[in-house]
Amino acid sequence: MCIRDSIGSAHTDRYLIGEKVKNDAEKLNLKTFFFYYAPGKTAFQLKKIFDKNLQTFDAKKLSFTKLSHSEIAEIYQQSFSVLDINKPFQDGLTMRTFETLASGKKLLTTNSDIKNYPFYDPRNILILDRNDLKISPEFFNTPFQEIHHETLEMMSLDSWISCLFIENQDDYWKMN
Q: Can you tell me the distance from the alpha carbon of 140 to that of 124, in angstroms, rounded to the nearest whole number?
């Protein structure tokens, strides 16, 4: 089983959370893959001066080159689960949430708001408290539970565009 994260930018407490989850996962004999990306060395060094969370970042674990779309797809295919670390004070879900669940992979996330969405299923989604990180070994011992086709359709780009420009957005994810 594999936990994968941080095919994305190095931000805020992502590194600290990622390393804690990685260490805990390895204690459970889970294979992990972490890829931390920053768009430029100078910008990262400046951010590191002002963001105390980035000051402990091990620069040897940082890439300034993005992975290709095909590399990302291959990593998803090989993964059992994906770790999503939202930015503190972020509203809404990340694209990684939808990519992961639509790929039939389990999701570990620091975004507790996910429990308010109709596709939330604790068998597929493990909510992590960023202040008290604990991963549950049981979460990795059960298979992904299929998501209803109608719900997957709601998660599609076409459906999102329709919601954005046509439908009443306030009711789109209303739980029944």
A: 10
